[in-house]
Each structure stands twice: as C-alpha cells, then as structure tokens.
UniProtKB/TrEMBL annotation, chain A:
Descriptive protein name: Phosphate ABC transporter ATP-binding protein (PhoT family)
Annotated ranges, domain ABC transporter: 4-245
Keyword Nucleotide-binding: yes
Protein role: Part of the ABC transporter complex PstSACB involved in phosphate import. Responsible for energy coupling to the transport system.
Automatic annotation (TrEMBL), chain B:
Function: Part of the binding-protein-dependent transport system for phosphate; probably responsible for the translocation of the substrate across the membrane.
NCBIfam families: phosphate_pstC
SUPFAM superfamilies assigned: MetI-like
Protein name (Swiss-Prot/TrEMBL): Phosphate transport system permease protein
Gene3D superfamilies: MetI-like
UniProt keyword annotations, A-Z: Cell membrane, Membrane, Phosphate transport, Transmembrane, Transmembrane helix, Transport
Record localization: Cell membrane; Membrane
Domain ABC transmembrane type-1: 115-327
Membrane topology according to the record: Multi-pass membrane protein
Sample GO molecular function, one term: phosphate transmembrane transporter activity
GO BP term, pick one: phosphate ion transport
Organism: Baia soyae
Chain segments annotated as transmembrane: 54-80, 109-134, 155-175, 187-209, 239-260, 309-330
Family named by the database record: Belongs to the binding-protein-dependent transport system permease family. CysTW subfamily.
C-alpha cells in the first residue's frame, strides 16, 4: 500500500531547477532512505512532502504529490493540518528554549489541547515512544537545553510524535550525533516503523542499508534509482548507483 | 537626562566587565609568551606588544575613563545638593505633601505632584508605544518580506532621529487641536496630547530594537514550530516572542526611560501646572519640565529653589534605576536561552 505518490514533480528555487521530474511511491509503514551526494536535492524533496518549502521565498513547484490520495498542493489544502500529520525531524536537534515538558506539549497545545491530564498522558507516551522517558521523567520541568545532543534529538522525535502524525520525515537525524546516540536513534527508528511511515535522508550508507526497506538514489535533482534497499545495495541497475554506493564519488 | 544616566549606568557596567576581560586576557598572553620563549624559541615566537597597540589601548582606556569620571561627577554633585536640600525640607513632607509650589509662598515640596505628571505621561506613552511597537516588530520580523523590511527599517531609524522639539510642536499644533474636537472641554495644555506624542516618539525605538531581538532568534526554532503545524501567528507568539523576550524587555526599558526623561515635548504640550492627578485631560507638569522651568528662570545659586532641581533630578535618577532593576529581574525570570 503506498501512502505517498509523486507525479512528475519539478521544483525551482527562482531559476535553479532543484528537483527534476520526480516520480515514485512511498509505502505505508515502511522506512524509505534517501541517499545521494550533497546538494542533489534530498532535503528539498523531503521538505516538499510537508510543504516546508512554502516558507522559502521564490520556490515554485510543479506536478503532484498525493498523500493518502489527496494532492497536497491543491489550493484548498490546510497546510497546518498537513504538517501536523507529517512530522519532521531536522539535522540539528532544535528543541525550543522551554522545558522538556513544554517542548513535547507544544504541538498539542497549538492544536487546542488544554486538559492537563490528557497533556500529561500524551507527553509520557511520546517520551516513551522516543525511548527518552526513563532518562527525563524526573526532570520534565527542566530546560531542554540541559540535555545531551542525542537526548535533544530524541526529544525532537517525541515532540513530533506527540501530535500523532502518520508520516515522519527525518533529515539526516543522526549526522550531528556521536555513535552511541546514533545507535539509539537507529534502534528507535526500527521500533517506530511498526506504526509510522518514515522517510529518512542519510549520508551514511551503512545506516541506509541497516534500517531501510526502500532506497531512493538522488543525483543532481533526479531520482536515478528507487527500489528495495536489498536491490539498490546488492544489484543496482544503474552504474551511477553502484559507483556511489561503492564510494567512488560523493 | 535621567534616562541618559540610566543608559550610562548600564554602559558603564559593560565597560567594567569588558575591561576586566581585557586585563585578564593580557596577563594570560604575557605568561604564555614567557613560557614558550624558554621552551621552543624557534617555533613559537614571543609576542611583541608593539608601540601602536599600547598607544591605541591607552587612548581607548582614557575614553572609557572620561565617561566613567563624568558620571561619577554628576552623581556626586546630585548627591551633595540633594542632601543639602533635605536639610531644609524633610523627606517625609517631600514624599507625602500633595502640593508642589517651591517658587511662591506658601512653599510646598510634595514631589507627588510632579511624579504623577511624569507617570501620567510615561504610562500614556507606553500604552501607545509598547503594544504598537511590538506588533510592528512582529510584522517586520515574521510577516513582511525582505523588500518591505528593507524599506521600513531605515524609515524607523530616521523617525528615531527627529528632534524632540519637532514632536513638541506637532503635539501642540496638530494633535491637541484634533483631540479637542473629541474632548471640547480639554485645555490647550494637557497630558493626553503630550503622552500620545511621546509614545509616537519612542515607538520606532521599540519596533526597531524588538525586531532586532526577534530576527536573531534562530530559524531552526521557527522551522521546528512550523513543522508541527503552527501558524505564523503561533510561531510569533509562542516561539519568537518568548525566545526574544529579554531583548524585547530591553527595548521596552529603554523606551520607558526615554519617556520619563523626555523634556521638550512635555514642556511645550503638557503645561506647567504641578498637580496630583491621574486625569490625562488636565494640564500637568513633569519632573523634567519643572527642571527646565526653574533652570530658565533666574534663581540664586544655593537657594532652596536651586536645590529643588537636584532633588527632582535625584528622584528621576532613582526612578530609572528602579525600572532597570525591575527589567533585570523580568529578564532573569522569563529567560529563554537558545
Ligand atoms: N533555500 C534555498 N534557496 C536556494 N537554493 C537552495 C535552497 N536550499 C537548497 N538549495 C539548492 O538546491 C539544491 C539542493 O539542495 P538540498 O536539497 O539542500 O540538497 P541535499 O539535501 O541533497 O544536500 C542545491 O543546489 C542547493 O544549493
Ligand atoms: Mg540536506
């Protein structure tokens, strides 16, 4: 079952053609890895899935992206609601300068939840789902900036999970972290896979091979190859894919 | 006047800490230099403190000293004359008497009458400038696109540079007649017109400084909120303003201090009647306007009228100082660091 479908998507930053004729499908409750050299458009593509590109001046997009069979670029789409359903985790952990609790509760509060008990409950659930609860349950009122980088990143994951998204977009979520935190987050992503559709950008080939079901290889704004991770890593059909994975460029 | 002193005070604190840092760094460098000279003369060379560095440093130090010494001088004069004032007038009657008539008999020295004038103007001006300034800043930093911002920012800075006497006549000849259409019984000199115009005067400062504080909030925080489905207004209210709170409070404090210290507009438009009142439609006199009035008349050096200037000046000083303290407390209480 595919949950996201791209149909001939082109994206321009003013005149710069950053995504070229992107088509493909992303399966529900699977992990899709996006790989490719820097500047090939992975982040741009990821941002086009929850319309975060709307925030950038001069961006123009053509083609269709369907999420659950709805074109998300249709004029009457509620963008806030779309972003609520498609969570995003960034490369640098970016918790708000608030308490741990307020970070996780932020999304629910802006979407109108006021009931203290309900908030407590969802905060706990989300922190548990992000494998952070045991470490922070006694310091929920403390500032999030006191946490380590890896903990902050898991806090950002908890914050995204708290509004109950169906899809989770992650842009190199472990590239700023040490190996131990990276391992924890990879393990966490494996857990989340049971409930969420995950699209993850990664620079780390081993990571892509370890955790993903499908892999898309980007090069200069195009998808060169998009297939099962198994196939991409063991029997790629395009020479460029093979070269990239073998570390011959990028 | 007092506001300048308030700012000078903060500035001095800055200079003080900066100088400490310089001194510390210098000793560190010197000891490091000596050390390396002994160990590896070929690779790490001894740092030369050349003549130019020394001269520049001394000149800069003297500049810093000038402002420190001037301030110490001002505070000392203020203190001496104020103490001598309180030999003639009791602190109790100064603080509780409701009349201020030092220039004619029977003499009364109740600062409350001037204080209420200053408060009326300051509160009125703040009611105009703080909300409008903050909203303008939010617009500029969160809504306006780059082109609009590039036009509006310089205009704000020009507005902040208009001489206050111009604002004074603007109040008297434009705003007051306009207000008298709505309040026909209101006199020519009144607190309302003056406080609105003082508010207009400090508005660009609030907007510009608050905007600076908001723009420096990292983009990644905004993106974090947008990605959770926040609207622009929610991002502004719940992420940007709290994160920039300390800078916003600073802009408020500077603006309020300027309003308290503002002299020209109130002298021209608010009148010269010291009065314990909270009615903005009446004519009042602020502390600053009183100082102008007395300074312009011919008064004898050392007379009680002369000393009142310093007592009033001291009150202004204490007031701005208190506002700064409250601001420090507010900043610490609601600090959000990023
Ligand atoms: N905000 C932007 N404005 C203009 N050009 C951009 C912007 N973001 C990315 N680009 C350009 O789009 C291309 C793809 O960038 P990006 O999606 O960040 O690549 P990746 O994430 O694969 O490293 C690059 O050439 C980059 O310079
Ligand atoms: Mg990227």
């Amino acid at each position: 079952m595919s949950i996201i479908q791209m149909k001939n998507v082109d994206l321009y930053y003013d005149k710069h053609h950053a995504l070229k004729n992107i088509s493909g499908e992303i399966k529900e409750r699977s992990i899709t890895a996006l790989i490719g050299p820097s500047g090939c458009g992975k982040s741009t593509f990821l941002r086009s899935l929850n319309r975060m590109n709307d925030m950038i001046q001069g961006v123009r997009i053509e083609g269709e992206i369907l999420v659950a069979d709805q074109n998300i670029y249709h004029a009457d789409v509620n963008v806030e609601n779309l972003r609520k359903n498609i969570g995003m985790v960034f490369q640098q952990p970016n918790p708000f300068p608030k308490s741990i609790y307020d970070n996780v509760a932020f999304g629910m509060r802006i979407h109108g939840m006021r009931d203290r008990k309900e908030l407590d409950e969802v905060v706990e659930q989300s922190l548990k789902a992000a494998a952070l609860w045991d470490e922070v349950k006694d310091i929920l009122k403390k500032p999030a900036y006191g946490l380590s980088g890896g903990q902050q990143q898991r806090l950002c994951i908890a914050r995204a999970l708290a509004v109950h998204p169906q899809i989770l977009l992650m842009d190199e979520p472990t590239s700023a972290l040490d190996p131990i935190s990276t391992a924890k987050i990879e393990e966490l992503i494996g857990e989340l896979r049971k409930q969420y559709t995950i699209v993850i950008v990664t620079h780390n080939m081993q990571q892509a091979a370890r955790i993903s079901d499908d892999t898309a290889f980007f090069l200069q704004g195009e998808i060169i190859e998009f297939d099962t991770t198994e196939k991409i890593f063991h029997a790629p059909s395009d020479q460029r894919t093979e070269d990239y994975i073998a570390g011959r460029f990028g | 006047m007092a506001s300048i002193r308030g700012v000078t005070f903060l500035f001095l604190k800055e200079v003080g800490t900066k100088m400490n840092e310089v001194v510390l760094k210098d000793t560190r460098n010197r000891s490091a230099g000596n050390h390396s000279q002994k160990e590896t003369p070929g690779i790490v060379q001894k740092k030369r403190m050349n003549r130019e560095d020394l001269i520049v440093k001394s000149i800069l130090f003297l500049c810093a000293m000038v402002s420190i010494l001037t301030t110490i001088g001002i505070v000392a004069v203020l203190l001496v004359e104020t103490l001598s004032f309180f030999k003639d007038v009791s602190l109790f009657s100064f603080l509780t008497d409701t009349k201020w008539t030092p220039l004619f008999k029977p003499e009364h020295f109740g600062i409350l009458s001037l204080l209420s004038g200053s408060l009326l103007i300051t509160v009125g001006a703040s009611l105009v400038a703080l909300p409008l300034g903050l909203m303008a800043a939010i617009y500029l930093s969160e809504y306006a696109d780059d082109r609009v911002r590039r036009v509006i920012k310089p205009i704000l800075e020009v507005l902040a540079g208009i001489p206050t006497i111009v604002y004074g006549y603007f109040a008297l000849t434009f705003v007051t007649p306009l207000l008298r259409v709505i309040f026909p019984d209101m006199g020519v000199f009144n607190a309302l017109s003056a406080s609105i115009v003082v508010g207009i005067m400090i508005l660009p400062m609030v907007a510009s400084l608050s905007e600076d504080a908001m723009v420096s909030v990292p983009k990644s925080l905004r993106n974090g909120a947008y990605a959770l489905g926040a609207t622009r207004l929610e991002v502004a209210r719940k992420v940007v303003v709290p994160a920039a709170f300390s800078g916003i409070i600073s802009s408020f404090v500077l603006a309020i201090s300027r309003a308290i210290g503002e002299t020209m507009i109130v002298t021209i438009a608010a009148g010269a009647t010291p009065k314990l009142t909270l009615n903005p439609l009446e004519s009042v006199q602020t502390m600053t306007a009183y100082i102008v009035q007395v300074s312009l008349g011919d008064i004898q050096h050392g007379s009680i009228e002369y000393k009142t200037i310093f007592a009033v000046g001291m009150t202004l000083f204490v007031l701005t100082f208190l506002i700064n303290l409250i601001a420090q407390w507010l900043k610490r209480r609601f600090k959000e660091e990023y």
